[in-house]
Amino acid sequence: MIEPGEKAPAFSLKDQNGRLRRLSEFRGQLVVIYFYPEDDTPLCTTQACQFRDVTPELKKLGAVVLGISPQGVESKKAFAEKFELPFPVLADEKMTEKGPAVSVAYGAWGEKNMYGKIVRSMLRTTYLIGADGKVVRRWDRVKTPGHGEKVLGAVKAARD
Predict the structure, then answer these.
(1) Residue 148 and residue 50: Cα distance in Å, rounded?
(2) β-strand pairing of 30-35 with 63-69
(3) DSSP assignment, residue 25?
(4) Other C-beta atoms lying within 10 Å of the C-beta of residue 124
(5) Closest Cα partner for 150 from 66, 50, 59, 56?
(6) CATH (domain of 64)
(7) Residue 35 near residue 124 (C-beta atoms within 8 A)
(8) In three state form, how does the secondary structure of 113-125 look?
(9) Which of 21, 44, 107, 111 has the most CB atoms less than 10 A away?
(10) What is the pTM of this model?
(11) Range of the domain at 136
(12) Of the residues 8, 33, 44, 90, which is catalytic?
């Protein structure tokens, strides 16, 4: 996990249109990065739509949203189009022995209990990164209901 005050790890991942996106391109802005398990599943869709719905307010505050999960570009494209997501959803496809590279670097991939079985997979995690590239806030094991509004509140507080 990256702690508040620490520099966010650099990355470059393809978005839903196949465009390579780098964290560095958003320098000078607040960046919300949310890691989610899978495109077009009930909780992940709810979470994405919450961020979709607060994106206009986030933009007014100078913030951008990036969603990251391990599915490929085609899956991202279908997901973004189906739910009219106005922000980049990024494909963390480069698998290492520990899991998807960027998700591992951010501590968003690890062990969890699913139906009584320990598995290694995505740990629903959100980061707010400041204009200086340092982590402002981190939410671990995110509970989906109301999460978009909580993050919006944190962005507002970071702007004050």
Answers:
(1) 5
(2) parallel
(3) G
(4) 20
(5) 50
(6) 3.40.30.10
(7) yes
(8) EECCEEEEEECCE
(9) 44
(10) 0.95
(11) 12-159
(12) 44
Report yes or no on 96 lying in a domain.
yes
- In the sheet that holds 89-91, the strands lie side by side as 20-22, 12-14, 89-91, 63-69, 30-35, 125-129, 135-139
* 119 in any annotated domain: yes
| Cα(55)–Cα(157) distance, integer angstroms | 16
> What letter represents residue 118's amino acid?
I
- Which residue type occupies 41? T
Domains of the chain: total: 1
Quick check: is 44 catalytic?
Answer: yes
Residues recorded for the chain: 160
Q: How would you write the pLDDT of the chain (160 residues) with one tens digit per residue?
A: 899 999 999 999 999 999 999 999 999 999 999 999 999 999 999 999 999 999 999 999 999 999 999 999 999 999 999 999 999 999 999 999 999 999 999 999 998 887 888 888 999 999 999 999 999 999 999 998 899 999 999 999 998 7
Given a contact cutoff of 8 angstroms between Cβ atoms, the answer to whether 44 and 76 are in contact is no
Q: Cβ distance 104 to 66 under 8 Å?
A: no
Compute the distance between CA of residue 4 and CA of residue 130 in angstroms, rounded to an integer.
10
DSSP bridge partners of 99: 96
Two structure tokens written together for 18: 């196949």
